[in-house]
Amino acid sequence: MKISIEDVKKLRIKTGAGIAGCRKALEEANGDFKKAEGLLKSRGAEIASKKKDRATGQGLVETYIHGGGKVGTMVEVNCETDFVAKTDEFKNLAHEVAMQIAAMDPADVEELSKQEYIRDSSKTIDDLIKEIIAKVGENIVIRRFIRFELGGQ
User: Fold this and answer.
1) Protein fold of 58-149
2) Where is this region: Involved in Mg(2+) ion dislocation from EF-Tu (predicted)?
3) In the predicted model, what is the mean pLDDT of residues 49-62?
């Protein structure tokens, strides 16, 4: 089946996957966008599982203040290299995780990972991390976080 560049572009914009990956997924799915998205998601999970044991000694500490200064979070998100830590994808992930913590008040990293992502309830924070791992090609780990709320314990 002939896949148009417009279809590849549309899938790339929606998923953030690479051009070659989008083309291959669309070809395997015979042009079916839903099926191609599923293929890309499963490939991303495969990539993430292969990288999960790699050391993560670099990263960012991200902060987020919400509610006119009534709630604040600080999260440490780690990756393998400082190069990836400086990418927009990684910085955005750290910011989204900090916002998630402010909004959902998880008890620990394990609970955070299992929570529905506040911007897209069809995926968890763990799914979001796996998507970014597939894009940047490095292991990513949420190491720790803290959440402060005015008047809280």
Assistant:
1) Tetrahydropterin Synthase; Chain A (3.30.479)
2) 81-84
3) 79
Cβ atoms of 59 and 78 within 8 Å: the answer is: yes
Average pLDDT, stretch 134-142? 87
CATH number 1.10.8.10 is the correct assignment for the domain at 5-51 = yes
> Where along the chain do its domains lie?
5-51, 58-149
> 22: left (phi > 0), else alpha (psi -120 to 50), else beta?
alpha
pTM: 0.71
* 152 pLDDT more than 80: no
How far CA 23 is from CA of 3, 7, 8, 49, 137, in Å, comes to 7, 8, 6, 23, 19
